[in-house]
Each structure stands twice: as structure tokens, then as C-alpha cells.
What does this fold into?
Amino acid sequence: MKTSYHSVCAWTFNAGKGGFTPPDARPSWDSDELSTVGMIKLIKNKIAPKLPDHIKLGFEMHYDYEYNEKNAKEVADALVQNGIALAMATPGAHRHFGYGGICSPDPSERKEAGEYGERAVNIAYDVLKKAWDKDVPPCFVIWNGSFGYDLASVGVRNMYNYLKQGIADLCKIEQKKGGEMYIAIEPKPNEGHPAMLLPTVASAIVLWKKLGEEGISLAKKGVNKEFGHSEMIGLDIVYDTVEEIDNNMLVHMHVNSQGYNDGIILGGPGKYDIDNGARVNGMNIAVAGLLKQSGFNRWKGHDMQTRAHDTEEQGIDRVIRSILSWDACEQAAAQVNEAELIGYLEKRETAKAEDIMRHAMMNAQKIFDDLYKG
It folds into this structure.
């Protein structure tokens, strides 16, 4: 079977969120005890043995609190020794810059945020490069958690222009390092400001197209497709996928969910970012079918949170279930008779087309059950 690339996110392994949920539900995952290297070993020892051989594992992490100048060599060594690739790196600017980061009206914050992003790229190339998969290079994701504002004014246009310049500068820095990584914008409609720049897939694509007109190469540039972020405002992840593929901008994925589209787990539009793992459902099978058509075979990240009541073992099990659920959706999508499906749609026999997709969903659940049982 063709290799399928799945990555696990460092931030999944937290002791507890705190606030309205317990901060210490998983005491052995306390941040002081479970280092980045410890997470890598946990993935190798607890998650990898539960997965089929055709799945290749990667790891995703933030600069500068999951990888940094002090631990990068140790992290790179651990990735190589455990057979796990660097799948994604991203600057954790939202923890440091509360007034917009690279789009901040404050020039001193813009400068500091730009230098912060440059350090994140440099370490990914200089120290962590030995942990890259030779066939599937990592993605450098620009997340918009700090790209926001809370005041309606003409200054928003200035912020957008600063943002374009900041991303363009980062692309030039990465190009000088070799231009081997993919660079993706991760859209998000809210969190951590009342209003966000780049809230949707379409807005990310528009920004890239504008940067292309202004001289930035769009090779290996695109969108980090995050299902849950689109679901938070009621957008259609299937159509999002069509836009990404049509513009050749699907370069990384976060296959999680808010839960509202499976009829079981609650969540959805208007809710906060719940970060459930991937699930077997019809929309995921449709997306998997589109990916098959497009030839996408890069990293599929499982950007997810364990539930507030989970133990450590339950948290690990949720990651395993997420990976196997998406793999089951991919396998079921590959078995759909697309010609028959399109034929029904052309003849307006939509109930029969629905039957095909429902059968695919039942097939995916059976595949998941078989995979999970090992």
C-alpha cells in the first residue's frame, strides 16, 4: 500500500488546559516533565506500534517553546533515532506579540516579530534539517493567532499591508536558505482577537496571489487546511478543498474537527476551537476523494486536543483513533465508483448518489474497526 504521511502535534500532550477545565488531568504530561524529546519517544513507543506499516509518522512543533536554540540538536537527534520526521514547524508568535506581530501598527513589535520568524526558519534548516523526510519536506506554517485587532478603523488596511510585507520578507529569508520547505498560511476566523486577518481559505489564497503579483514565487506556497477552523464559522470543508486544489495551494493539512458534522460529537459553528481528532464521516470521505484525484500525498497533521477528562492513556488512544479514522476514510474513498456517482448526479438521481456516499461511510467504519483491532 502507498505510504501515507501523518504527523502528531506536540501541543496535544498537555497536562490540562486550566481555566474552565482541570489544569492537572494528566499529571505525567506536565510541561516540566514531558519535554519535546519525551513527546517524540512517547509517539514512537505508544502510538507507532498501533499503526499499520504504510503509515509514516512526523512531528509538528512551535518555535520557541517546543524547539529552540537550546534544545534543537537534542530534538533533531531524537527524531532521527526514533524514525520520526520533522513534518511542520511554526513560530509561536501569539505567545509573545499581543498587538499583531508582523502586522502590528507598532513598528518595534513588527521588527521583533519578523526577527522571531527568521530564527524559527533558520533552526528548521540549520539544526533540524537532518530530521526531514527526503521525499516529503516539512511545511513552515504561518498561523494567524496574532494577526488580529479589536478596533474598527482605517488602520486595518495598514495592518494588512504590514502583514503582506512580513510574509514576503519571510519567504525571501526561506528562499535564501534553499527554498526546500513548503510555506503555508493557516486561516482562522477567531482566537486570539475579536477580529482576524486571513480568516478563511479564500482570504489566504487571495493574499498569496497578491504576493505573487508583487514578485514572490508561489512555488511550494499555499494553505494549511484546518478542518475545524472552517467548521467554526460554518464553511464547507469540501468546497475549501476544491479551492485549494484549483489554485495548487494545498500544501499541508490539519485533519481535525469541531465535531458537528458526524451527528455524534457536539461543536460546530459559533463554538470555540474544540480540536477533536479526525472522525469517520461522509464529508471526510469526500475530501479524501478530492485529495486522491489531486495526487496530494504530503503530511496530514492531527492538530487535536485530548478532552478535559482524559487520562494519559485515553489521550494517546485518541491520537491513534484520529490517524486510523483518516486512513479508513482514504481507503473507503478509493473504493467509491466515481463514474457511477457522477452518472447519478448528471441524471439528478441524488438519492442514489447519497446511497453511494453512505455506503462508503459504513465501509470506512468497518475499515477503521479492523485497523483499530490490529
